[in-house]
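Quick check before the chapter quiz. The format below is the same one you will see on the exam, so make sure you can read both the input and the output lines.
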Amino acid sequence: RQMLEKFAGYYHLRHRFGIQEEGDDALKDFYSVRGIPHVVVIDQQNKIRLIRVGSGKESAAAIEKLLAELLK
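Here is the expected output.
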C-alpha cells in the first residue's frame, strides 16, 4: 500500500484504487493481472476503457487524460 500511495503522490493521481487482499485471486484472475501496478479504468457504464501495466510518466499521463475526459 505504501508503494501505491507513493506512486499516486509522485504522479499526482487522485482517483480511487482497488487493492486485492492477499490470498484472494478474484480481481487478479478477472483482469488478467500480469504485473504491478496494473491499472484498469472503468467508466460509469461499467465499460473497461483502459488497461495499463507498469508505471512511468507516459502511463500516468494517459490515465490522467482519460479520467479528465470521462469526468467532463
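If your answer matched, good. The first strand starts at residue 38 and ends at 42.
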